[in-house]
Amino acid sequence: MKPNEDRNGISRREVIAAFAATTLFPAPAVLAQPAAIEGTRRNVSSFRVAKWQDHFDTLRNGVILSDTQSKVLQYWSEDESVYRMFPTSVPLTEDLTRLGYTTITRKVEGPSWRPTPAMKKRNPAWPDYVGPGPENPLGTHALYLSWQYYRIHGTNDTRKIGRRSSNGCIGLYNEQIAELFKLAAVGTQVKLI
Questions:
Q1: What does DSSP assign to residue 53?
Q2: Cross-strand partners of 49
Q3: What percent of the chain is helix, strand and coil (3-state, nearest 5)?
Q4: Nearest 5°: phi and psi at 129?
Q5: What are the residues whose beta carbons fall under 8 Å from the beta carbon of 126, sequence distance 6 or more?
Q6: What does the angle CA 103 – CA 68 – CA 164 come to, to the nearest 5 degrees?
């Protein structure tokens, strides 16, 4: 047994980090605070809460709005009976960030991962292929977008959530991408702002 570990091999640092992570970024959807100025709502994590009407003409097939500045993804069902908000990871740099409208074209549970040619050029040491499992950067579920190489997916590295840490994709906690995966269908409208 190492110093600062209990009988189960858990260190004091791991316990503190787990407590901080669940306190700062709880797994359930983030709760919003009441309206402040002209209909703008903010929550305790400073996420901007948007109105779907400001970005989409209709809720046909449901909609996803991903805000790359406040690092939050919002989902509305077609009949507006379901609304969810999730903290996300976003692309590392502006040049890796694609903004605008797209749709979900495919859903994969247990996705495999291959680095894009640009990613492989930036980091030749990356493997050419990673199958489903705990080492997969796409986590447990992936929503493929109509833009080549872009996904909304889970992550096995929870330190990435709430940060600029991806190579272009939007990342969610695995528990939350599993929830969104059940809600969002192929054809769901998506906008990244």
A1: G
A2: 41
A3: 20, 35, 45
A4: -155, 140
A5: 115, 119, 120
A6: 120
Per-residue model confidence as pLDDT tens for the chain (193 residues): 555 545 555 665 665 555 445 444 444 444 433 333 344 444 445 667 889 999 999 999 999 999 999 999 999 999 999 999 999 999 878 888 889 999 999 999 999 999 999 889 989 999 999 999 998 999 999 999 999 989 999 998 888 998 888 888 999 999 999 999 999 999 999 999 9
Amino acid type, 137: P
Q: Which residues are catalytically annotated? A: 153, 169
Total-model pTM: 0.74
Structure tokens at 98: 């694609």
Alpha helices in the chain (DSSP H): 12-24, 117-122, 174-183
Cα–Cα distance list, 1 to 8, 10, 11, 47, 78 (Å): 9, 10, 10, 42, 54
Specify the residue for token string 């796409």. Answer: 138
Q: What is the rounded distance in angstroms from the CA atom of residue 109 to the CA atom of residue 40?
A: 35
